[in-house]
Amino acid sequence: MLVVAALTAACGPGGAAQGGGGSHGPAPEGRRAAAPLPSSAQSAATVARPTPQEISLDERSVLLDVVVTPRPDGLRVVSWWGCVETGCRGRRAIATVATSDDGLTTASYEPWSRRRWQAYAGARDAVPSVPALDGLLQQPVRSMAPGGAEGTQVVVAGGDGATLLPFEVAARTTDHGGSWETYDVDLGGEVLAYQSGAVGLADGRLLVLLDHFSDETLARPADRWHGLWASDGGDWSTYAPHRAEFEPPLGPAPGGWSPVVALDARQDVAWVRTWDSRLYVSRDDAATFRQVRAR
To answer: What angle do CA 232, 238, 240 make, to 5 degrees?
Structure first.
């Protein structure tokens, strides 16, 4: 009986120890009862979604694509930024930057959507009909030659390269597609090159980004130039490394791969993207490239 009485006094009438967090009885004086944990929906509501500007400026975001358009007072840069690291994966935004030669720079930011990006980037160029290239994968190339696409059209082609386009044949027309000149690319030996962009320069050369070759593995590149190559004048079958001047200088890419990962052009402006999400533009036929703001 003494034991039962002692337990009853300690636990109270409900059988739970008083002050021990049971569901009955008030909390001891001077202590607050623990608040219930918020639900997952309540927790999510308290975390503000990052703005497009915050996504673009996040150091974890990478430059996925860009379009540069010349303007009378400078350049218009529209860039697509995306975060792919854990903690921000899937966040995408568009940054529109207007620059001028006098240093004035403004920027605006908006959420990314496929329709919005296509409105900025424009429709993909149609692949011209080149009978000599039937059966090959073909890619239209923007030309910086006088008259642009209306007079001069350029196509590069190759066999099935899965995710990379082999650089095996180049073709051009200067009479609106009435006749085509085709060139079998010869880089020496049996090695096949893969390209990640090409531009027809105003002086008649073909500039191409060769960043992978068939005798390489993903772990280690071969001991050769990875980056921009230019044709020997108007002979689009022969190429040599094109060592343009970059300001500031390009940083080396990890593993010895090309620091340049994309090449494109609009009108008289050529540009490249780099592995570390920098943008360089050229307005002197790819002789020199200078870095410009992309966000």
So the answer is: 70
